[in-house]
Task: inverse folding
């Protein structure tokens, strides 16, 4: 896309008018299929893993959107497509970029999914990611200073001395000792490493951050420290988060709005309060009822919905509603024939089910 | 249901590992009792000694790397630490079975599920291979694996994570042990699969009166599953009591902190979670005093100088804190938090 302000409808079908002023990211019908190839000399595609099959959502400025689901539901793939760390098969990822130009601030809507290399490179300063595993995401042979300064080097910001100052400042911001710049990742605990990952993500003053299971690998007491830190940083630097997680209780704490994914599609999406107090999709019910509550009284009183079997393969997903093979409410042939679309059942509460129904499961 | 008959009694167990940096006191003097049919939860973070205490019971700590320095492990009246290897092998699997967190590493990838089940069964029961096959099929059937006869021919990689853990449970229970030790059995699984597996374990243990020692880092899991909970910290006991009391009448600041630090499905907590400051202690030369002292909000000078011994503060409710039960933990537990 160009550096100019987009005229309405300059991207076919989607103009600036379609992206509300308070929206930072808008994902339209995102699809990602990973091809399965066979043969050594004559490789041919024999199928595809349909990791993400038509996902649409918006992220408002300054909010935290939670993307939650079980392994293989496509939540991480979605996030990586949003940042274009992998190439989406189709769909749009519209991003509201603000650049300070000669004539003051300019706003432009850029389609990340089709942006060229230079535009992407410019945008990457604005969008960062924190990964799940603080052991795997830091190069063990680099010092903390070179890890955190790397984005600055890549984008050619500052000289050596300025970068060291920035690194020290960032270490302080994430609650680490600024004197520890010359240490290596193995000298830090899991929680501290995650802070290093956060400092690296903050180095370029981003607007938008993808947090891909940022606390899943941490112990409870450390998890709380990192969650508190992420919240402080959001307030301090006015950050917008896309928070990927499998833990519904972490999401309830950390997110303003939540989208529940199942087999590459969004099953339900709503504000935090609506989703947890009035969940409507049978999969959301099952998922919530499976999460244990640290309260013996409540645990004894609860009736757990036990789902039958395993999650079907995304290579050959079920017809119609993808959840119909495990759903207690499924009615045939409707649910096995017709794909339920994501509908707005109440204001801001979207459900993809033919028979949505509020159910108390907490 | 838990009875009053003692099944396993661990007295003053100390398991140390020697490393280049020094001796790691992974388990440093813990004592507890598990009754027949009891569901005993052990909760703690990484490095709290919960897994090592389980491995010590199974005598799976191999010298010279690690050794059980002192202690007694009395199972049905016999001290397991004094058994010869042959008798211990009969206890392992036959009397006490163990299932692990990662079923992919616990199962042998080059043998079929059937092979491994039959091996376990013929090791502990005097049956022919054909009979063992039938016992194996019915064990798979008990853990609700569809088409068990077909699955006997499968290799572990052909099964999903949940199915593999079911195989492990089937294997563990195939010889009707009196005690099943489950070390983080659901940590590697998705929540809905976790619910399936816990539900299954609960029912199987109940049907067979098998006592279960469930090791986990998740206070939510033990809340619904266990009769008794033991909270460990830094290789020692922090607190032990009935499940209800651990949650409602918490004595130890660490237990309180864990409860306050947890995110919850059923309520929105205060803006900020309670965070236990710092990180767990090194267990190399931990020195004297309370191991939680450096992270405790209620710490006094006494805590650094004097090791708190576990005391039975109210019937069957133990805590290792100088100031239990007089601390006001409501602030730490974030009980006031609603919204």
Result:
């Amino acid at each position: 896309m160009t550096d100019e302000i987009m005229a309405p409808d300059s991207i076919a079908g989607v103009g600036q008018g379609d992206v509300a002023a308070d929206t930072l990211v808008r994902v339209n019908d995102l699809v990602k299929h990973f091809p399965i190839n066979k043969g050594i000399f004559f490789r041919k595609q024999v199928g595809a893993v349909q990791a993400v099959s038509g996902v649409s959502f918006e992220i408002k400025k300054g909010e935290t959107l939670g993307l939650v689901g079980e392994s293989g539901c496509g939540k991480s793939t979605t996030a990586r497509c949003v940042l274009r760390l992998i190439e989406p098969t189709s769909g749009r990822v519209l991003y509201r970029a603000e650049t300070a130009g000669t004539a003051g601030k300019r706003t432009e809507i850029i389609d990340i999914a089709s942006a060229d290399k230079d535009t992407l490179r410019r945008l990457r300063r604005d969008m960062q990611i924190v990964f799940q595993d603080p052991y795997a995401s830091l190069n063990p042979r680099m010092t903390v200073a070179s890890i955190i300064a790397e984005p600055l080097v890549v984008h050619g910001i500052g000289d050596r001395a300025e970068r060291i100052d920035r690194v020290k400042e960032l270490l302080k911001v994430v609650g680490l000792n600024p004197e520890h710049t010359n240490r290596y990742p193995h000298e830090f605990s899991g929680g501290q490493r995650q802070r290093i990952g956060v400092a690296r993500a903050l180095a370029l003053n981003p607007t938008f951050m993808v947090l891909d299971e940022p606390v899943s690998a941490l112990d409870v007491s450390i998890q709380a420290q990192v969650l508190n830190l992420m919240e402080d940083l959001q307030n301090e630097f006015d950050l917008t988060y896309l928070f990927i997680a499998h833990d519904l209780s972490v999401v309830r704490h950390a997110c303003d709005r939540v989208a529940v994914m199942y087999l590459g599609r969004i099953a339900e999406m709503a504000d935090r309060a609506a989703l947890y107090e009035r969940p409507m999709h049978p999969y959301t019910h099952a998922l919530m009822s499976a999460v244990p509550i640290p309260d013996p009284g409540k645990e004894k009183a609860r009736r757990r919905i036990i789902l039958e079997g395993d999650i079907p393969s995304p290579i050959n997903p079920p017809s119609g509603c993808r959840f119909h093979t495990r759903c207690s409410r499924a009615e045939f042939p409707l649910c096995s024939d017709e794909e339920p679309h994501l509908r707005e059942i109440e204001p801001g509460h979207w459900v993809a089910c033919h028979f949505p129904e509020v159910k108390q499961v907490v | 249901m838990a009875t009053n008959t003692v099944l396993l009694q661990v007295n003053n167990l100390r398991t140390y590992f020697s490393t280049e940096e020094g001796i790691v006191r992974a388990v440093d003097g813990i004592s507890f009792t598990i009754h027949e049919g009891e569901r005993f939860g052990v909760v703690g973070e990484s490095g709290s000694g919960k897994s090592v205490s389980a491995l010590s019971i199974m005598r799976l700590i191999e010298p010279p790397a690690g050794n059980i320095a002192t202690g007694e492990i009395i199972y049905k009246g016999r001290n397991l630490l004094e058994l010869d290897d042959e008798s211990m092998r009969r206890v392992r699997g036959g009397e006490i079975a163990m299932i692990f967190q990662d079923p992919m590493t616990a199962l042998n990838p080059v043998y079929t599920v059937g092979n491994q089940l039959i091996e376990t069964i013929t090791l502990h029961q005097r049956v022919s291979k054909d009979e063992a096959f039938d016992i194996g099929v019915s064990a798979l059937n008990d853990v609700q694996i569809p088409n068990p006869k077909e699955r006997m021919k499968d290799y572990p990689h052909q099964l999903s994570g949940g199915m593999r853990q079911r195989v492990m449970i089937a294997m563990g229970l195939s010889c009707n042990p009196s005690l099943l030790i489950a070390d983080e059995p659901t940590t590697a699984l998705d929540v809905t699969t976790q619910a399936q597996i816990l539900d299954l374990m609960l029912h199987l243990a109940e049907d067979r009166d098998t006592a279960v020692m469930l090791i986990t880092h998740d206070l939510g899991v033990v809340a619904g599953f266990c009769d008794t909970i033991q909270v460990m910290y830094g290789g020692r006991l922090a607190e032990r009591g009935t499940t209800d009391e651990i949650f409602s009448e918490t004595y130890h600041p660490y237990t309180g902190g864990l409860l306050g630090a947890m995110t919850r499905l059923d309520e929105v907590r205060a803006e900020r979670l309670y965070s236990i400051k710092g990180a767990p202690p090194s267990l190399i030369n931990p020195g004297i005093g309370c191991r939680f002292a450096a992270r405790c909000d209620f710490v006094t000078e006494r805590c650094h100088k004097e090791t708190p011994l576990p005391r039975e503060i109210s019937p069957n409710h133990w805590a290792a804190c100088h100031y239990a039960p007089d601390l006001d933990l409501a602030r730490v537990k974030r009980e006031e938090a609603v919204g």
In short: The CA atoms of residues 225 and 334 of chain B lie 24 Å apart.
